[in-house]
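Lab notebook page, bench 4
Experiment: in silico fold of construct C2
Operator: M.H.
Input chain length: 115 residues
Purpose: comparison with the prior construct
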Amino acid sequence: QEQLVESGGGLVQAGGSLRLSCVASGLIFRIYVMRWYRQAPGNQRELVATITSSGLTNYADSVKGRFTISRENAKNTAYLQMNSLKPEDTAVYYCTTLLGGVNLWGQGTQVTVSS
């Protein structure tokens, strides 16, 4: 069964860094576009970063220059390196991929940035 599992969230002070991981199972990871979304309380889920199967990346304007998305196909894992974190980055972060026309989501990992 296809599954995505995120980890790496936590509590960090403003200016700090975290690296999120998303481990995929049950799918041929290397062929899929992977995305990271986030959702803060009371807000809609927003797209943060995308990486294609060939490694092309794209970022939301709010995180450009601070976040880096990457993938390690041999480990079926996508990463989100987050630097210079701000309190407004506080959210639950989810990884996702489109599988047969349906979005497959992980359970999410909480990131909290204190000021």
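Observations: The radius of gyration is 13 Å. Residues 42 and 48 are 17 Å apart (CA to CA).
Next step: discuss at group meeting.
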